Amino acid sequence: MINTEIDRAAADLDTAARDLAALRDALGAAIVGQEALITALVTAVFAGGHVLLEGLPGLGKTQLAKALARCLALPLARIQCTPDLMPADITGSELLARDERGLERLDFRPGPIFASLVLVDEINRAAPRTQSALLEAMQEGQVTYGGRRHALPQPFWVLATQNPIELEGTYPLPEAQLDRFAMKLNVDFPADAALLALLDASLDSEPADRVAPVLDAAARDRAIAAARNIVVTAPLKQAAVALVTATQPQHERAHPLAREHFRYGASPRALQALLRTGRVHALLAGRAHLALDDLKAVASPVLRHRVLLRVESEIRGLAVDDLLEEILWQWRSRQ
Amino acid sequence: MSAALPRLLKAVRRRLVATLLVRGATLAAWWLAAVTLALGAVHRWWVALDPTVAVAVGLAPPLVAVLLAVWRRTPTLDACARHIDRVCDGRELVVAGWEIARTPGGAATATARLVARRAEAAAAEWLGRLEELRGPVPRGAAFAAALVAAGAFLLAGPSLAPPRTADAASAAAATAATEAPAAARTPAPERTAGEARARPMTEDSTPGAAEPEEGREPSPLLLPQLRAGVDAGRERETGQLAATARATSRPEGRAEPVAMEVRLIRAEAVDSAAERAAGSDSVALDAAAGASELRTAPTTRNTAGLVTTLNRFAPAERKYLAAYFDRDAERASAAPATEATP
Lengths: 335, 342
Description:
The structure holds 2 protein chains of 2 kinds. Chain A contains 14 helices and 11 strands. Chain A is α/β, with parallel strands linked by helices. Chain A folds into 2 domains: 19-212, P-loop containing nucleotide triphosphate hydrolases (Rossmann fold, 3-Layer(aba) Sandwich), CATH 3.40.50.300; 230-335, Helicase, Ruva Protein, domain 3 (Orthogonal Bundle), CATH 1.10.8.80. Chain B has a two-stranded antiparallel ribbon. Chain B folds into 2 domains: 4-156, no CATH class; 166-334, no CATH class. Chain B is an all-alpha fold.
């Protein structure tokens, strides 16, 4: 009996790992030369987190979101952010309508946020007021309008993109908004070989448009459940706490670099994101338990947008990723 | 569920403790090497030392340190699990399996039981690879051991160290050995008690070695003990003296510093004895007066018997004193072996 349960659990884990690997491969075929990015994206999505993609224009951020939606057989809603975008344009609004008896009433018309996968393009071009409209949706999975709560579909993921160089006319995301994203992924310029392959794959048509669904709803839910069953032991929890506190400049166990260069460290929400994404990473590796390497693999994308540099350090040109890499190296060597 | 995981953890703990011991022993060997070499050099060329004391000084501190380190740093089984994961690239499988196994209710879910099962399987495999978990032997251990052996060799070997006063004493002995027979043949000039008192009574007790300062306390006579050369031609002495001489001579017959102890005798006692003995064949040195002034140089091993002997005045010593201070050298040389009891 017990062995049967164990065997079933092992089979579920294997199936979930295979499904995630298949999803990763499918996305890799659509978005060439971004394997690490795709792995991180899958990790964040199946951990139930939202993703902020940052990269130059033309690197395939939107195509990646479209490919993911197709692979998961989910509807994709796209919000193109502009300075004049209003919150109601995202959440929806109430419209005056007449019923069959001719009585007027206010009907709530859901906005594009009411989709399982929402692509918020160039999120930093939206006004802070509009950006804040995403807060409740991203954190609580609901929208409150006119005093009424409207639940968002499950699963619900937000993929937001932003351009790191065109800063004029943009509104940098506030810390509270940034903290809602489980991961911030940097979309790097592909290597030469990847560019050549990209030409072959996407010269006449976008590969993302041709992607077939890889996971149905059942497989998707099974993978999410399997990730939640990954065993997280007490030493790993302690290690995750140690990592987060190492980024806190005021903490007694803060890393010296954090004390020197960070204005704010990672939040407790970062700790949750760390373990959740780490579990998916372990599942992708075919393991039933979380390992330190899983935490290390997801740490930078989870933490990089949650720590704030001091002004002096920014002026000196220090990069958060470099500092985090040093902190991670020391953290890993101490475990 | 098999018990491969606890067995693996305990086996690794034993190995980690052994590694700790080896490292500690290596450090101790360096310490021991330094101590034994230093003490060995001291023993060999400066001051003879008791090897057991040297070994105790060299061995006790590192031994205590190693035992303390082993006691305080013996790893827990949790630490052993982390060690195995680190060495075997277990990706925290052993840590997870061990926590599930030791925590009540740890295997509540099927996935947890799966992890425990995988950990057991891995432990069973790694039990056969325990050799890989052995820590490396610290570098320099053999060299440290060689140094310890060298130091022990120095400590165990014979000491070539004369006592600090022995150089002069042995020199005086050599001088006396050559001069005493000559003094026995050559008449010594008449000397008064005052002259004798004014005579420099240094360890080099040859006449005229040094002139005493006016008003100075009488210098002690450093009487080299048991100079074989002095008594070689006139030896008719008691067995006690002969036994003492044998005790201080080296079996190899090398230049052993025969006078490891010196007796300090006030010149007054000798002078008064010489005056009392004027006109007689024997000299009776006041034993009590001399003994009260008896001192010994820093003792070495094998000197317990000599010290005992030196508390009395042996006849040969009295003869030596008599010959040295005798106003009538011919009489002294004609009757050198007169028995006298102090």
